[in-house]
Amino acid sequence: DSGVTQTPKHLITATGQRVTLRCSPRSGDLSVYWYQQSLDQGLQFLIQYYNGEERAKGNILERFSAQQFPDLHSELNLSSLELGDSALYFCASSASSDSSYNEQFFGPGTRLTVL
Amino acid sequence: GNSVTQMEGPVTLSEEAFLTINCTYTATGYPSLFWYVQYPGEGLQLLLKATKADDKGSNKGFEATYRKETTSFHLEKGSVQVSDSAVYFCAQSSNYKLTFGKGTLLTVNP
Which of A3, B51, B65, B81, CA to CA, is 20 to 30 A from B58? Predict the structure, then answer.
């Protein structure tokens, strides 16, 4: 158990809908990262927050957004869903903002299926 | 941009065989390098890391050496076990994010 929790575990929805994925980092970790894992694209970095502020952005679509709240939990919002958004979404956390030296701890993931 | 290339799988070995999974990277500067492992139905776990050239990361019998001259970070284990069956990801860290390779599925048969 990494200490990172993600809810829900599975999510099935229809095209055009909007969903929210939730992540609680390990106790004491200030950084939260979101990743998308799909068969064709592999594991892609989406976005990072550090202590409530956006720190780095990766291959995140404009239809997707995220935020980190004062209690440090984070939410990833996916809107106008398309079939291609079906994937496993991971959250990770680390103690600091610099992933060069600090291990990222991954949650178990949320599997999103868009029908 | 920064990228990571690792050998395509799947890799199937018998128990106690020697394992090598190749990984090379392209980067500006000198990133930190990592191997993560993903067991079935779970998230990724850090297996080992190296933060500078010639560093050797090791854990659970796995080793990888940061080779700046060949921009490589190959994963090795002398004697694999059935419990090592998983997907292995090579990654580099720069600009606050991790860039992963596509992953290599390893299956170890008894």
Answer: A3
